[in-house]
Structures are given as C-alpha cells and as structure tokens.
Amino acid sequence: MSKKDKKIEIQLADSQVKVGNEQYEGYILSIGKKVIGQIAEFDGQFAIIKNENVDSFYKKLENAVEKLIETYNLSK
C-alpha cells in the first residue's frame, strides 16, 4: 500500500522581529498554522532568532529558511 502525499504549506511573511529590547525588520516562517522560526535582517545578513537572541547568521535568506526547516524536521 502506498501512502498519500500530504501537501504542506510553508509561508514566509514580513514581520517585526524582537531581538533583546529592540525591534528589527524580518520574517516569520510558518508551516500550516505553526510558527517554526523568526529571521531578522542585520546589515545584509540574515540571523535566525531563538528566544529573542541571535542563534546564527547566514549570507542569504534562502540558507536561513533551509536551516529552520531542517531543524524543524529533525525535531519532529
């Protein structure tokens, strides 16, 4: 028997991201209705934000999004 393919909707929405006590332009990545991560933009670099702190930096937005999705899939 084969499994049916599930369609998963991934959204990247513009948002204000809080880092420490300051707000920055950034993005919220969500799968379905669940928010899986936040990305803030600093001087042309993209930072993954966890618990209002910078976790890691990436040169491209695509790399940061890939890392968030990878981390989400590994934690399931």
Order of helix and strand elements from N to C terminus: EEEEEH
Number of strands: 5
Radius of gyration in whole Å, from Cα?
14 Å
* Shape type: elongated
Percent of sequence in beta strands: over 45%
- How confident is the prediction overall: mean pLDDT? 91
Q: Helix proportion of residues, in percent?
A: 10-25%
Task: Give the uncertain stretches in residue-range form.
Answer: none
| Number of separate helices | 1
The secondary-structure class comes to alpha+beta
Q: Largest sheet, if any?
A: 5 strands, antiparallel
* CA-CA gap between termini: 24 Å
Structure overview:
This protein has 76 residues and is α+β, with helices and mostly antiparallel strands. It has one helix at residues 61-75; strands spanning 10-19, 22-31, 34-42, 45-50, 53-58. It has one domain. It has one helix and five strands. It has a five-stranded antiparallel beta sheet with strand order 1-2-3-4-5, covered by helices on one side. The longest helix has 15 residues, at 61-75. The chain is elongated and about 50 Å long. It starts with 9 loop residues before the first strand and ends with a helix. 17% of the residues are buried. The mean pLDDT is 91.
